[in-house]
Design a protein that fits this description.
The structure holds two protein chains of two kinds. By secondary structure, chain A is an alpha/beta fold. Chain A is built from 13 helices and eleven strands. In chain A, the strands form two sheets. Chain A has a nine-stranded mixed beta sheet, sandwiched between helices. A two-stranded antiparallel sheet of chain A has the order 5-6. By secondary structure, chain B is mainly β. Chain B has one helix and eight strands. Chain B has one helix spanning 23-30, and strands at residues 35-39, 45-46, 61-65, 71-80, 94-101, 108-114, 126-133, 139-145. In chain B, the strands form two sheets. In chain B, strands 4-5-6-8-7 form a five-stranded mixed beta barrel. In chain B, strands 2-1-3 form a three-stranded antiparallel beta sheet. The N and C termini of chain B lie far apart (40 Å). Classes of the chains: A alpha/beta, B mainly beta. Strand 5 (203-206) of chain A pairs antiparallel with strand 4 (71-80) of chain B. Chain A: Pfam families: Thiolase_C_1 (PF22691). Chain A: One of its GO terms (molecular function) is acyltransferase activity, transferring groups other than amino-acyl groups. Chain A: Residues 249-376 form the Thiolase C-terminal domain. Chain A: This is Thiolase.
């Protein structure tokens, strides 16, 4: 078991307004999210001495954020990255505090993901794409430039091997859209999805319909990590990091060279031993959901269901409230919003605090949660949290 | 990076960029042949090509030419109904198939499946490599269903 288990905690979470067109800059959004996270923790901005962010050149810098919070930071870091970067930076925060470089770390992701730089793509130089992606010359000339195609190639093969149908992808979507109906801040609140409607929706990129894609939104999220000792000074109920696997990678940087494995398989091998628990002990989960299939593949990687049992697991409603593992209970990136995974981390933190107690949104009595990050089949990370 | 002559043709799609590591593959393709990198130490085939063997780390690699008679079976595929890159708007859906190649173990090559209707595409179907001349001096390997 990890020897820092329970010694660090998430003590503050916050978000900006969420919209399709913020009308403002990522710095303004990041300031809203950071102020809300600091208020949530009951800290002063000057209590935060390290600031870190991830982006795809579509955000502001940590130094800018600290400046306009009125703080001279001791440590700033901005990394390139998408999914699984939250877990990566939380592990970094633990290391920084453990080594005495910082005492409280604020991590943020800010993006005009809909009105500004869209992840769905378009407009890049095709020569640049061929050079930037390992083995890019072997996919770009064939029109394969979108994550929906990159992950879809894995999905088609995996669905074939695991006997998964379109309806099984639909169960993931329908389950998460159902959660969004209990979340007034979800983009698709008020827009429930029936299986009948899902199955009538045409493919954007086989095997995915538009419902299988995550949303694109303008939004910032922030998280504050500090030591369990320091957490006693905070007003929020701390959510402890019981185990964390910051990042694992596929054996080949041109990950399409082997569709039979994904980086999450390696995280799944280590995370439970790291946290000292079993998959059956989990009460709630946030599973990275940039596409519906990515959830199914991770249920397998994280040993929540066997390959043979994946379809039944989701068809039986196990991702829904009252199921075996209520997951992405704010609606996930499929129906709440999309900040490259961080919104799912905010939600599981709130679940484990029992912040929704007394409402139908609360996963009753939850104590242990799994939070996964998926950059792609190439890289992944996860953490297990407890209250 | 190599400069690419686009003046000789109206081909709108991206043309494979030749690099120090992949040039023999694309040079062979221009001659309507398949060349694959192989490790001289562990003897395993390497695709896509690189600066060393990804299986064992050996820097000693060679190229083997398999000629023009290349067959395989569809291992996976996607079919995209919106163009993701320039030029693909003319022949939607874009069908992209990864194929297990019969002539060598462990090599799967991704290309478009051409002249196929979406309902004809399935894992396990037999295909043959074919080359499309895209400019005066460049050709692109593609897959076609065996009839």
């Amino acid at each position: 078991m990890w020897d820092l288990s329970g010694k660090y905690a998430i003590v503050g979470v916050g978000e900006s307004e969420r919209s399709k067109n913020s009308g403002t800059t990522p710095l303004h959004l990041a300031l809203q999210a950071a102020r809300n996270a600091i208020e949530d923790a009951g800290l002063n901005a000057k209590d935060i001495d390290a600031f870190m962010s991830y982006s795809e050149h579509d955000s502001c810098t940590s130094h800018q954020l600290a400046t306009y919070l009125g703080v001279r930071p001791r440590y700033v870091k901005d990394i390139m990255g998408g999914g699984s970067s939250t877990e990566l930076l939380i592990a970094d925060a633990v290391s920084l505090i453990e080594s005495g470089q910082a005492t409280a770390v604020l991590i943020f992701r800010s993006m005009n993901g809909r009105s500004g730089v869209r992840m769905g793509g378009g407009g890049w130089s095709t020569d640049l794409l061929q050079s930037a992606i390992e083995g890019g010359s072997f996919i770009i000339p064939y029109g394969m430039a979108s994550p929906s195609q990159w992950f879809g190639m894995f999905a088609t093969r995996h669905m074939y091997e695991a006997n998964l149908t379109q309806e099984h992808l639909g169960h993931v979507c329908v389950s998460f859209y159902e959660h969004a109906q209990r979340n007034p801040k979800a983009m698709l609140h008020g827009k429930p999805l029936s299986m009948e409607h899902y199955l009538k929706t045409s493919h954007l990129s086989y095997p995915f319909t538009k419902h299988d894609f995550c949303l694109e939104t303008d939004e910032a999220n922030a998280i504050i990590v500090t030591s369990a000792e320091r957490a006693k000074d905070c007003k929020s109920r701390p959510v402890f990091i019981k185990g964390i696997v910051a990042r694992e990678a596929h054996p080949h940087a041109h990950y399409w060279s082997d569709l039979s494995q994904v980086a999450a398989d390696y995280v799944g091998e280590r995370i439970y031993e790291n946290a000292g628990i079993q998959p059956e002990d989990l009460d709630v989960a946030s599973i990275y959901d940039c596409y519906s299939w990515v959830v199914l593949r991770q249920l397998e990687a994280y040993k929540i269901a066997s390959r043979e049992g994946l379809g039944d697991f989701v068809a039986q409603g196990n991702l829904k409230m009252g199921g075996k593992l209520p997951s992405n209970t704010a609606g996930g990136m499929l129906s709440e919003g999309y900040t490259h995974g961080m919104n799912n981390v905010l939600e599981i933190t709130r679940q484990l605090r029992h912040e929704y107690k007394g409402t139908e949104r609360q996963v009753e009595g939850c104590e242990l949660g799994l939070c996964t990050g998926w950059l792609g089949p190439d890289a992944a990370g996860a953490m297990i949290l407890n209250n | 990076m190599m400069s690419i002559e686009k003046t000789s043709s109206k081909y709108e799609k991206p043309i494979p960029l030749k690099t120090i590591d992949n040039k023999p593959y694309w040079d062979a393709a221009d001659q309507h042949e398949l060349a694959i990198q192989s490790c001289e130490d562990c003897k395993r085939a390497i695709h896509p090509p690189g600066p060393a063997c990804p299986h064992c780390g050996s820097p000693t690699i060679e190229w083997i030419n398999y000629g023009s008679d290349v067959t395989g079976t569809i291992y996976s595929f996607v079919m995209t109904y919106v163009p993701m890159l320039p030029g693909f708007q003319h022949d939607l859906p874009t069908i992209i198939a990864q194929v297990e190649v019969d002539q060598m173990e462990g090599v799967r090559i991704t290309a478009n499946l051409i002249n196929a209707a979406p309902e004809e595409v399935a894992i396990g179907k037999a295909v043959k490599m074919t080359w499309i001349d895209i400019t005066e001096d460049r050709a692109l390997p593609q897959w076609a269903l065996m009839k």
